[in-house]
Hints:
By secondary structure, chain A is α/β, with parallel strands linked by helices. Chain A contains five helices and seven strands, in the order αβββαβαβαββα. Chain B is an all-alpha fold and 157 residues long.
Amino acid sequence: MGKFLIPLGIFVxxxxxxxxxxxxxxxxxxxxxxxxxxxxxxxxxxxxPAQMIGTEQLLGQVWILNVWASWCVACxxxxxxxxxxxxxxxxxxxxxxxxxxREPAMNWLQQLGNPYxxxxxxxxxxxxxxxxxxxxxxxxxxxxxxxxxYKKTGPVTQETIQSIIVPLVKKLQG
Amino acid sequence: xxxxxxxxxxxxxMLASAEETKLSAELEQxxxxxxxxxxxxxxxxxxxxxxNADLAIDLRTQIREQIKAGKTDQQIKxxxxxxxxxxxxxxxxxxxxxxxxxxxxxxxxxxxxxxLFRQMAKRRALVVTQNLSSDELEQADALLQHSTHNNTSHTxx
Lengths: 174, 157
């Protein structure tokens, strides 16, 4: 009798492991940057090439960095959610316009609305690499001391905003 | 006389460019071998050497620039890990949270061998315990004789 239970046991263990594997998302790579200071950058603004934005300027407030591009299809899905969120005024959203061109990017914002306090223009994608960006859109929450507290790869949904981002921002704002 | 100078300068420039291509070939070789060690995060089962995703191209450029800047392989790997995590390394490093990953094959092997030896020992024990009693031996003899007898009679007919 016991002998016949062995294959059943093996099956159950396998089923548990495989079932767990199904519910994990291999695209969700844990970022090593969480809890680390946001990488320093100094880049020009998307709409004002002469105006530079650097990390130091953003210290002292909780802010959200959203990596986007006009060529990014998923960003288009995400955009209305960000526009809605920006209206609540919970925290400023800065855009990192990743590997894009100024003109299509600015058209994009004009057509779909601009949720960003400012967009940082990262044409070469170097700052993107420093932030470990690999799947646009990506969203970071950065605290008053410039430390990254949260990262989301892929489009932010209304639910992520309500259940994770807003409570976290409120907590960080103290 | 003039042609000699031309020839000589040509020769020198050829030597210089040969040296240059040799250097850049070495550089490319190093870029390639580094790229084979790093995972492309866009298409996760490829290295950045195999992938043509935009990010892979950018990261190869990064590797090239950093090699040119005199960085060691380890420094470049650290640079990538700082940004993308251990996941970027195609060969997972041995550390506390990957110990199981590294040891599991050996543990499985040892377990399987243990199981195999136990089964073999069981079988050997089975053979040893099947000693026939004298009664059974006689019975077997009788049967065997009977069958040989039968066989011979069979071949005769």
